[in-house]
Every structure is written in C-alpha cells, then in structure tokens.
Amino acid sequence: MDVLKKIPVREQDPKVRAANFEEVCLGYNQEEAQAEAQRCINCKNAQCIKGCPVAIDIPKFIHEVKEGQFAEAAATIAKSSALPAVCGRVCPQESQCECLCVRGKKGEPVAIGRLERFVADWYREHGTEKTAKPASNGVKVAVVGSGPAGLTCASDLGKLGYAVTIFEAFHTAGGVLVYGIPQFRLPKEIVRHEVEGILDMGVELRLDTVIGKTITIDELFEQGYQAVFVGSGAGLPMFMGIPGETLSGVYSANEYLTRVNLMKAYLEEYDTPIKKSRAVAVVGGGNVAMDAARCAKRIGAEHVYVVYRRSEAEMPARNEEIHHAREEGIEFHLLNNPTRILSDGKGSVAGMECIKMELGEPDASGRRRPVEVPGSEFVLDVDTVIMSLGTTPNPLIRSTTPGLETNRKGCLVVHEDTMETTRPHVYAGGDAVTGAATVILAMGAGKRAAKAIHEALSAKKED
Ligand code: FAD
Ligand code: SF4
User: Alpha-carbon distance 209 to 417, whole Å?
Assistant: First the structure.
C-alpha cells in the first residue's frame, strides 16, 4: 500500500453509467475503509476538524473505523451531524476538512469523506439501536424549510426536547437534496432514511405548507411558537435577459432538475413532461450546470454542451464533477457566451447563437473578466437550453413578515453569532442567508441557530 495515496474508490464504468441513474461512486467496502483509516495519524491538534463547519471529531471516528468499531464511529459522527450519508457523498471535502489534513502536505489527504460515507452506509445496513426520543419540554419552535439548514436546526432542538415542527412547501422533505442533486450522486432513499432518523426523535413534519401563503410567520407566533427558524433556501433561478429565453425548450436548471429528480421524469412509469431533446446547451459552469448536463445525457440527448464564458480554470464546479461529466461524454464550449436563442418560427428552440470570449483584466471577484471577441458569433445546433446561472432567495417570506430585512441580493440579514434576523425571535440560516452555497455550510448555520434559540428561550424561562 502506498501511504501517500488514498485507497481508490470503485465507480460505475462511464459508458454504462451515462445511460442510467444508478449511483456513480460505489464507496469503500469494509476492508478498503479500514486500510484507508490506517493512513490517519490521529493528530493531537487535528486541523481537519477546523475545516468541518459542524466540527465532527474526525480523528476519533477514523480511529474507530481502523479498530472495526463501526457502530461507535457512527455514534461519534451523529454527535455533530444528522446527515452523514449525505455529507459523505456531496460535501466538497477537498476545500474543507481534507484540505487541512496534514497527510496532504506530502501526498494525498486522508479520504475523510469516503470514510464518513462508509460509516453512515454501514450503520444504515447494520445499526440496531432505535433513535432515542428525548423528553419533551413542551416549548414550540417552528422551522421553515426541510433542507439541510432546517433539518439540522430541527434535529439539534429536538435532541434538547423542544416541540419542533418543520413546515415544508413541497410534498417531500429534503430541499435541494431531493429536488436538485441527482439520484446518481445522492440516492433519494438515503435522504429519506436520514430525514426519518430526525422525525423518529419526535420532530413533526408538515408538508405542502407554504409559509407566507398557507400561514404566515406572525400566525405561527399567534399559535404559540416561541421562535421561528427560516431555512427556505435560494430557489429562485436567474436568467440572462437575452432574446428567446421564453421559447419552449428553455428551462432553468432548477426546473429541469426538479422534473428529473423530484418528479422522476427518468422513470417510464412516471408521465412527467420533459422534452426528449436531441442536443442540449447548458449555460453556466457550476456544480448545478454539471448536474443538469449529466441528467440531460442520461435522459437520452445525443449531444450535451456546457457553455461557459470563462476558461476551465475559473469554473466554479468541483474538479471531480467536471471530470465525471467529461468521462460521460459532455462536451465543453469554454470561453463562449450566448447572445440569443433562435426560434423555429413555431415558438420552440432552433439553436443558440454564441459569441467567443477572451479573458481580460481581473474583476471584483479576482477572476479574469471575459471580453467578447467582435465578429466571432456562431450558432450552436441545439433544441433545448438549460440556464444554470445561479439562484437567489424567493422574496415570499420577507414580503409577508414585517421587520425582516434583506440585503441587495435578497438574502436575509442576520446577526453573525446568533443567526437572529432583524425581527426578534426569527432566526435564519443556509442559502436563504448566504445565497446558493453548500450543504455543510447550511448545516453549520442550522446548528448555530439552534444553539442561539436554546440560549434565548432558556434565558426567557428564567426571567
Ligand atoms: P434548501 O436545500 O434549498 O432547502 C430549502 C427548503 O425550504 C426547500 O425544501 C423549500 O421547498 C423550502 N421552502 C422554501 N420556501 C418555503 C416556504 N415559504 N415555506 C415552506 N417551505 C419553504 N452543495 C454541496 O455541498 N455539494 C453538492 O454537491 C451540491 N450540489 C448541488 C446541486 C444542485 C443541483 C443544487 C441546486 C445545489 C447543490 N448544492 C450542493 C448546494 C446545496 O444543496 C445547498 O447549498 C443547500 O441545500 C442549502 O440548504 P438550505 O437548507 O439552506 O436550503
Ligand atoms: Fe487524521 Fe488528517 Fe485529521 Fe490528522 S488531519 S487527524 S491525519 S484526518
């Protein structure tokens, strides 16, 4: 065994997986996990923990894996995270725990994410302990949204005995974990299992309830809720504002992914409407764009192009996602920007005009600014366009809750330490506050808010 390298992980063959929705990464088996765990030197002042927004005791759980104590490892992770099988699959470990691992100074860091996934999967299959139901303190707290921020806040407050109710607009819980991230990266059964673990603790879930429409935050307070946590995400898609964006065959990545994932358009027994595309252009260079492109390929498109206005070095998507997309046959049109979407004369997409770009001086983000090359327009032969340009929070909650302030991007303004908004007793976290970010940052925010809510409500009780 080369101690400088991670134990490789098995994956589905790219040619096979490009036509199915089965999970791409197959994860470690017991032997592989224990071999990888041996690479951890169990640092006293473990830097990896500092890179984890929910502060999992990483050396402890890895040591337990090394010793074959998998149930103990699961208990160690559960102290800090309610969604280990999710995080083990989708967290950008390379820019968090793993980028601080001392092993990475000479060689590859310990594969912390793959080990977390192994432990969570092992426990799901072999764990026998029932989730304990803490004694209720009867104090009601409302959580808006069942994404990673809301689930974490609900889980931490539930453990402390609060009577927590999660209000979710959709007919199923999980937020982006169920409607955005595709099945082949994060199987929905796994999200369902982790959500059930939180509900087993006594947390109540009310689906199909839109806060701001079905019921307002003021009405929740009238019903006796003592605090409200808003984890409503950032689900409003952005468009470019170019001609042709209203043609049939133009989707936002959010809509496309929701149809494929939540509404199961990839299964024959579901009659979810989705265009049977021949050639698809996905505009954007983030993880969401990679997910949309890889879904379009699996749905059956012959050609799928990612159109991005900067070069690969500036692409915000994880290297692993770009690599997987390439392996599956996604074609990249880098340094290209759409100028208009062409119509077939009957209201549908008949191509997308693009212009070539080159990189100029760095802009405010520090990345080199893309500049158009005059006269370099060309037409990309596509019948479907998926816009993946980022999202912002939906203004519904802010517009129906007096006293809630937002910044110029529409994100809720919170006090950094307590996550309390400008409206007393209303807390917020996750994408609703930061704009589109990551699962683990949303979880970290949900945790901080739960702690602050507990402190505030305990102090109120003592008054
Ligand atoms: P969400 O997950 O958006 O959950 C918000 C929930 O609130 C939703 O269920 C929504 O229906 C509900 N809601 C909204 N308004 C209301 C209302 N008025 N009343 C009731 N309920 C409401 N991050 C990673 O770390 N790794 C990845 O690989 C990754 N891939 C991604 C792929 C895609 C396609 C997308 C879109 C995002 C991805 N992200 C990834 C980002 C990550 O999923 C988000 O940052 C994270 O889910 C944010 O969590 P949240 O709880 O703040 O919001
Ligand atoms: Fe193990 Fe790396 Fe963390 Fe050290 S920094 S404890 S080697 S995972």
Answer: 29
